[in-house]
């Protein structure tokens, strides 16, 4: 079932919420690729994009937290690091399979690189983190003054 962003997941920062929506969309593409015979060859590409965008998003979120003096900054940064280590492990494995002999032509080989259990875990690392830890920023981000943007 696709992950759908809902208003209860808001963090109080529009850019961060946009990132989360986009991350969910990439995750849905990953899931679609796993379950579709026509799309399975795109799995390493989609998962690679999920990993890259997660990294980019975590950095953006940490910068924002730092700028508003978020008290959970260090614990949150550590949680991000833990997720990245796990996602990297899965991603490295998939990229390795994709470049192995016959890798992209063997759907079962690719599917084995991201079986249902790892897929469910990846989903909970991402969605669970947004739902539990990112939404906890809401009271702080709501209070934080909006950054001044020159020319706006
Ligand atoms: Fe986030
Ligand atoms: Fe986060």
From TrEMBL:
Annotated Gene3D superfamilies: Hemerythrin-like
InterPro entries: Hemerythrin, Hemerythrin-like, Hemerythrin-like_sf, Hemerythrin_metal-bd
UniProt KW keywords: Iron, Metal-binding
Domain Hemerythrin-like per the UniProt entry, residue ranges: 12-141
Molecular function in Gene Ontology: metal ion binding
Family, similarity comment: Belongs to the hemerythrin family.
Name listed for the protein in its UniProt record: Hemerythrin-like metal-binding domain-containing protein
Record lineage: Bacteria, Pseudomonadati, Pseudomonadota, Gammaproteobacteria, Chromatiales
